[in-house]
Design goal:
Elements: H1 5-14, H2 40-58, H3 62-67, H4 72-83, H5 87-100, H6 106-139, H7 141-150, H8 156-174, H9 185-196
Helix pairs in contact: 2-5, 2-6, 4-5, 6-7, 6-9, 8-9
Length: 210
């Protein structure tokens, strides 16, 4: 018996639809989103870094802490850590400070700490340079002549008088008896004088004749 056109259309209507992705078939994972966040080890390193930063802040002076961009809650936590005397209590408080550091501008704080640290290092180096210069000036007239040529704005008579006084002071200290206190008044005054002399880079330029 041949199928009529009506029967053919009816068969097409009742033909079951193909299931696109049945549950029991493997799925294509190529379009699934890939997690690209920080790894657990990176998160752990970040936490340790914040804890170390918190420790560094706690070691600062109170005035320095006040200058940092800290929230009121974080600042109070830091100041409390500074006041805590017990070892365990201080450790717990520092951990709390490190936890609060997660919401703080850590990079700005690190930059300020670095500025203070480098400034202190440079100040120390400058002091050592002045001490070395003082020893050279006290030990050699040639060193004084050379230094004066490099600093033409210095009061020559005043600096020479200070050096002579410091030299006499040194000589007198060599003859002190045991228990006698050495004198360093002129020695210290010479250092302060050298410290007050501007470096060549600090000297203002000559006014233009134009």
């Amino acid at each position: 018996m041949s199928m009529t056109l009506y029967d053919s259309e009816l068969a097409d209507r009742v033909r079951p639809m193909t299931i696109q992705n049945p549950k029991n078939m493997p799925q294509d994972d190529s379009n699934k989103p890939v997690y690209d966040g920080p790894s657990k080890s990176q998160v752990k390193r970040d936490m340790h870094d914040l804890l170390d930063l918190g420790k560094a802040v706690v070691e600062l002076s109170r005035d320095q802490v006040k200058q940092l961009p800290l929230s009121e809650r974080l600042e109070d936590a830091v100041l409390l850590a500074q006041k805590t005397t017990s070892r365990e209590g201080r450790r717990r408080q520092i951990h709390f400070v490190g936890k609060l550091m997660r919401d703080a501008p850590a990079e700005l704080i690190r930059q300020q700490l670095e500025t203070w640290a480098n400034g202190s290092v440079e100040d120390t180096r400058a002091m050592h340079r002045l001490e070395t210069l003082r020893e050279r000036l006290l030990g050699s007239d040639d060193a004084l002549t050379e230094w004066l040529s490099q600093n033409p704005g210095v009061d020559v008579q005043s600096i020479r008088a200070q050096i002579r006084a410091a030299r006499r002071e040194q000589a007198a200290n060599l003859s002190l008896q045991p228990g006698q206190e050495p004198q360093r008044k002129n020695f210290r005054a010479l250092f302060q004088t050298l410290k007050s002399v501007p470096k060549p880079s600090d000297t203002p330029p000559e006014p233009s004749s134009d």
